[in-house]
């Protein structure tokens, strides 16, 4: 019995390995072994500007002045944001900034405190 994963698109058990890719002969779908490992982990990986891993509940510090869209407010450099929540998408941090309210931030503009 083969220990190769089933096809993620059609669930076919007839997958085979071609160099560093898995291939499904039934639907023609190709995917890498890293993709299959990420799907099995099913955990969101978010890194700050320095490359440190972030997790839910962390405290981060803003490293750049950020304009708040639709407002004249600015989130200043050095602002600490407590109890962040990681989400999927372009803005991958969901948080509440003191004095401004709830907002989403990009992880590239924060560092772990």
Describe this structure in words.
It comes from Pseudomaricurvus hydrocarbonicus. This is Protein YjdM. It is built from one helix and 13 strands. The protein has one helix at 33-41; strands at residues 16-18, 21-23, 30-32, 46-47, 53-54, 60-62, 66-67, 74-75, 80-81, 85-86, 93-97, 101-105, 110-112. The strands form five sheets. It has a three-stranded antiparallel sheet. Strand 1 and strand 2 (21-23) form a beta hairpin. The longest helix is centred in the N-terminal third of the chain and has 9 residues, at 33-41. The termini are far apart. The model has no long low-confidence stretch (mean pLDDT 88).
Round the Cα radius of gyration to an integer and report it.
20 Å
Q: Using the alpha-carbon principal axes, give the shape.
A: elongated
Model regions low in confidence, pLDDT < 50 over at least 5 residues: none
Count every helix, treating DSSP H or I runs of 4 or more residues as helices.
1
Write down how many β-strands occur, each being a DSSP E stretch of 2 or more residues.
Answer: 13
Strand pairing plus helix content: what structural class?
Answer: mainly beta
Chain oligomer state: single chain
Q: How would you spell out the order of helices and strands? A: EEEHEEEEEEEEEE
pLDDT averaged residue by residue: 88
Biggest β-sheet: strands ordered side by side in the sheet: 1-2-3
Report the major sheet: 3 strands, antiparallel
The helix content is: under 10%
Percent of residues in β-strands: 25-35%
* Terminal residue distance: 49 Å
């Amino acid at each position: 019995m083969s220990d190769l994963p089933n096809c993620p698109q059609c669930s076919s058990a007839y997958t085979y390995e071609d160099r560093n890719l898995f291939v499904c002969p039934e639907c023609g779908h190709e995917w890498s072994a890293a993709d299959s490992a990420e799907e099995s982990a099913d955990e969101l990986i978010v890194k700050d500007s320095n490359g440190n891993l972030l997790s839910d509940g962390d405290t981060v510090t803003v490293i750049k002045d950020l304009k708040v869209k639709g407002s004249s407010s600015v989130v200043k450099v050095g602002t600490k944001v407590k109890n962040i929540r990681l989400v999927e998408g372009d803005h991958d941090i969901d948080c509440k900034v003191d004095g401004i309210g709830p907002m989403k931030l990009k992880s590239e503009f924060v560092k772990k405190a």
